[in-house]
């Protein structure tokens, strides 16, 4: 099969690393020929994944396409799908998810629990909703990795909001943040990876580290699994999906957001699960049986983030010390340049001892720095 990936970042890179285990000819479309995925594919095309003609011409001679980011030209994907190219996930699912407004409306339509929200079209709209604060203002299109999100606690914060279509989401008292990966094949069969607990950096609003499987009450796990399955079933699309959820102060489970692709919260599966999220997506695209999602051992992930005050050619401080640690696996994404907050890699730790996972996660976070 000839399979294309729209986007050439670290997700595309790891997807291509998994592709080496299968007989598949890989194609990547990305604007930067020095992107992390460029040298790992069979065929690289430089181009804009948001441009209709570029995406259509890239995909028309392929058997299948997948994405590593939602900001793709969905119109082109719909035309390709109509002409027989298989798209994972379906363009209809990407269209719903890529806009946080339509994504939230989708949850309400299908009775999927989510936090209360109001749609705002302009800042003038936002100014009429002071009574709804404290809340989180999320840009409908274009936000990622904490960008396009503003926390509005009171009227003084209104100026931070967006003068564009967005959702104003009621602030939830969060006990835990959870992510769960769901895979569905063309036959509608599904498998779930164990839920992971995500601990976020409150300043960067990026994943700081995570633990999997999350330590949860059985009833809570059932709710998480049921809501995640419902999200994917209602999207009516084969593919791999990451569903992010909140557990609030009353132990209620709320769906926060869904990503229609491989995801940061599933990186640990490369070493910690029998079939990684990347292997799983190839199984779906190539029509093979779904893989085994069971954990080999519990795991933790630490993101390697560009240090504050450093912009330029990347240097990795403390790398040798981290590589000396037992059951620790370093993944560098091959990005030549760093800047504050940029994802430059991740480290996976596996251990039967959850205290050991947490200890090593904190230690690695303080040892490994990306500077210039």
Descriptive overview:
By secondary structure, the chain is of the alpha+beta class. The protein folds into 3 domains: 2-88, Rossmann fold, CATH 3.40.50; 116-170, Dna Ligase, domain 1, CATH 3.30.1490; 174-371, 2-Layer Sandwich (D-amino Acid Aminotransferase, Chain A, domain 1). It has 11 helices and 22 strands. It has helices spanning 10-19, 52-59, 74-82, 91-98, 100-109, 123-127, 218-235, 269-272, 277-286, 319-323, 354-367; strands at residues 2-6, 25-30, 43-46, 64-67, 86-88, 117-120, 135-139, 149-152, 166-170, 174-184, 190-192, 196-201, 206-212, 239-248, 253-259, 299-305, 312-313, 315-317, 328-332, 337-338, 343-350, 369-371. Strands 10, 11, 12, 13, 14, 15, 16, 19 and 21 form a 9-stranded antiparallel beta sheet that branches. Strands 3-2-1-4-5 form a 5-stranded parallel beta sheet, with helices on both faces. It has a 4-stranded antiparallel beta sheet with strand order 6-9-7-8. Helix 2 (52-59) runs parallel beside helix 3 (74-82). The radius of gyration is 20 Å and the shape is globular. It starts with a strand and ends with a strand.
């Amino acid at each position: 099969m000839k399979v294309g990936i729209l986007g050439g970042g670290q997700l595309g890179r790891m997807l291509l690393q998994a592709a080496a285990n299968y007989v598949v000819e890989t194609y990547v479309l990305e604007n930067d020929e020095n992107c992390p995925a460029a040298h790992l594919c069979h065929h690289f095309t430089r181009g804009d994944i948001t441009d209709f003609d570029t995406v259509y011409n890239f995909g028309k001679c392929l058997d299948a396409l997948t994405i590593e980011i939602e900001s793709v030209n969905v119109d082109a994907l719909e035309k390709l799908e109509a002409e027989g190219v298989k798209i994972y996930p379906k363009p209809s699912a990407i269209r719903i998810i890529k806009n946080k407004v339509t994504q939230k409306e989708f949850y309400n339509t299908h009775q999927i629990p989510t936090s209360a929200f109001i749609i705002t079209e302009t800042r003038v709209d936002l100014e009429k909703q002071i009574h709804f604060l404290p809340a989180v203002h999320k840009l409908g299109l274009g936000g990622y990795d904490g960008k396009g999100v503003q926390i509005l606690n009171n009227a003084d914060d209104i100026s931070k909001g967006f003068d564009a279509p967005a959702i104003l989401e009621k602030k939830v008292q969060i006990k835990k943040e959870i992510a769960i990966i769901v895979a569905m094949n063309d036959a509608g069969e599904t498998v779930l990876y164990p839920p992971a607990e995500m601990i976020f950096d409150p300043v960067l609003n990026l994943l700081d580290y995570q633990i999997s499987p999350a330590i949860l009450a059985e009833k809570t796990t059932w709710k998480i699994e049921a809501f995640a399955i419902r999200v994917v079933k209602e999207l009516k699309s084969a593919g791999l999906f990451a569903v992010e959820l909140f557990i609030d102060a009353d132990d209620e489970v709320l769906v926060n957001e869904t990503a229609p692709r491989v995801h940061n919260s599933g990186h640990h599966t490369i070493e910690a699960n029998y079939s990684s999220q990347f292997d799983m997506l190839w199984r779906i695209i190539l029509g093979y049986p779904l893989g085994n999602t069971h954990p080999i051992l519990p795991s933790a992930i630490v993101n390697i983030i560009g240090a504050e005050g450093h912009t330029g050619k990347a240097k990795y401080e403390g790398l040798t010390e981290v590589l000396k640690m037992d059951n620790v696996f370093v993944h560098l994404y091959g990005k030549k340049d760093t800047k504050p907050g940029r994802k430059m890699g991740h480290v996976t730790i596996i251990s039967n001892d959850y205290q050991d996972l947490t200890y090593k996660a904190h230690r690695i976070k303080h040892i490994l720095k990306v500077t210039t």
